[in-house]
Amino acid sequence: MKNIFILKKLDVTFDPQLEEYVQHITALCNMFKKNILENENQCDEETLILSLGGDGTMLYACGLSSQYGSHVVGINLGNLGFLTPFTSDFLYTEEFKYLLHPEAYKMGYLNNFRIMKRDLLSTRVYNQNAELVNVNALNEFVLTCKNTRGILQ
User: Fold this and answer.
1) pLDDT of residue 118
2) What pLDDT digit, counting tens, does each position of 8-43 carry?
3) Given 15, 55, 89, 119, which residue is catalytic?
4) Which residues contact 10 (CB under 8 A, 6 or more apart)?
5) What is the largest CA-CA distance in the chain?
6) Which of 30, 69, 34, 73 is nearest to 53 (CA)?
7) What is the distance between the alpha carbons of residues 153 and 33, in angstroms, rounded to a whole number?
8) Which pLDDT tens digit goes with each residue over 68-116?
9) pLDDT surpasses 60 at 151
């Protein structure tokens, strides 16, 4: 992977600890001469998306992955993460450095990691032959009525 995109928690404007993690990742990327992408639209199959947050951030990252063919690593910054396997402590391990190493694949550094391929759900919603929505999801879709008045009385 030659590019890194850091996707931060979606529900926080400024978190000093999160900014510390980003600075640490940035320093490692500079050491290994990785490009840090500023915009998610720059992602491609040569990009590793680092999802820093919870499951919501990870779900968003998976959407980017399906769109651009990128790989995703989830770092859980909350209390419970079903989809984010690593805690913030992982950012300071040798294994994390190996993940960013430019020769990681050739040198077998990634043999200790398991790449999980996930199936995506795909849905399209139509109204009188016009497509209204076309989205992918990792684990579920929720369809609701716009007007729920009168359902519960």
Assistant:
1) 79
2) 886 665 677 888 999 999 999 999 999 999 999 999
3) 55
4) 53, 56, 57, 60
5) 65
6) 73
7) 62
8) 999 999 999 877 778 888 999 999 999 999 889 888 878 887 787 887 8
9) no
Asked if 28 and 97 count as a contact pair (C-beta separation under 8 A), the reply is: yes
Q: Is 55 a catalytic residue?
A: yes
Q: Which amino acid is at 52?
A: L
Residue 148: band (very low, low, confident or very high) from pLDDT cuts 50, 70, 90: low
Of 83, 89, 24, 22, the closest CA to residue 58 belongs to: 83
Token reading at 112: 């200790």
Closest CA to 78 of 61, 49, 53: 53
Structure tokens at 135: 């989205």
Reported as half-sphere exposure (CB side, CA atoms, 13 A), residue 147 has a value of: 2
**CB under 8 Å to 32, separation ≥6 — which residues?**
100, 101, 102
The three-state (H, E, C) secondary structure of the chain, written as one string: CCEEEEEECCCCCCCHHHHHHHHHHHHHHHHCCCEEECCHHHCCCCEEEEEEECHHHHHHHHHHHHHHCCEEEEEECCCCCCCCCEEHHHHHCHHHHHHHCCCCCCCCHHHHCCCCCCCCEEEEEEECCEEEEEEEECCCCCCCCCCCCCCCC
